[in-house]
Amino acid sequence: xxxxxxxxxxxxVELGRENPRVVVLDxxxxxxxxxxxxxxxxxERFFNAGIAEANMVGMAAGLSAGGMIPFASTFAxxxxxxxxxxxxQSLAYPSMNVKVVATHGGITVGEDGGSHxxxxxLAIMRALPNMTVLCPADGPETTAAIxxxxxxxxxxxxxxxxxxxxxxxxxxxxxxVGRGKTAREGTDLTFVTTGLMTAQALEAARILEEExxxxxVVHLGSIKPLDVDLVLRAARETGAIVTxxxxxxIGGLGGAVCEVLxxxxxxxxxxxxxxxxxGQSGTAEDLLVHYNLTPANLVEAAERVLRRK
Length: 309
Known about the structure:
The chain is an alpha/beta fold and 309 residues long. The protein has two domains: 164 residues, Rossmann fold (3-Layer(aba) Sandwich), CATH 3.40.50; 128 residues, 3-Layer(aba) Sandwich (Rossmann fold), CATH 3.40.50. The chain is built from 13 helices and 14 strands. The strands form three sheets. A seven-stranded mixed beta sheet has the order 3-2-4-5-7-6-12, sandwiched between helices. α8 links the parallel β6 and β7. α9 crosses α13. It is globular and about 60 Å long. It starts with a strand and ends with a helix.
């Protein structure tokens, strides 16, 4: 178990040692976003913008124009919400080489409640031209995704979480922007997942196996660009899809997958995620249960989609 934000903080320090062009900005949350480790080792390359997320993004754009590779971090609800205009106008529109790494995404922020639980950030960022959108599943994939983002020339939005999540992939796993991964083979249906829901889907697939149902698990750490070929292949080979995300079903992974299937190979789909509601205060575990984001809920969605198949 490791929090994706912890993996991010560690990877930032490694990148800082390897490349003097890497700089980091934060909006007075470096202890929570884990950029404090970079600040301690490279104080001359760390900039605290204070509680001024829009200014932070503008500063990052300027540093990018000067040849640096800025990583700008805050909570997902502030990055996608409070700083949206600056991300649109100063990063996406001119395609600046800035990496916005947003921690505390989704409802597993927990007790901070609905005001701090971003359930729309993937949809917002996915709609922006030039923007790459990533949502890794675990610690090892976060390390690989941050390295891939650093190597990519252009704006990137990376969504990370607050709490510790199960490790799904090997320590030395790879990450290619625009490519997904088949985490488990199966023939009867496919779970298409992102973020922490990949671990939930793998557990659901094990439960279904006991019921003689063969469930494939396709993890999409790259929401945009999406691995269209992998999604269409899963649809053709299994004939039914269940999407799963810690995000609204509107506009996020579920929306992206449905767009691909509607145009390429229509099959029955069940979308697991927040059903057009905000989050609320509670423990991460209780909220996953309340909003039907558990392995048991995924098993129920699989049974529904199999009946439709």
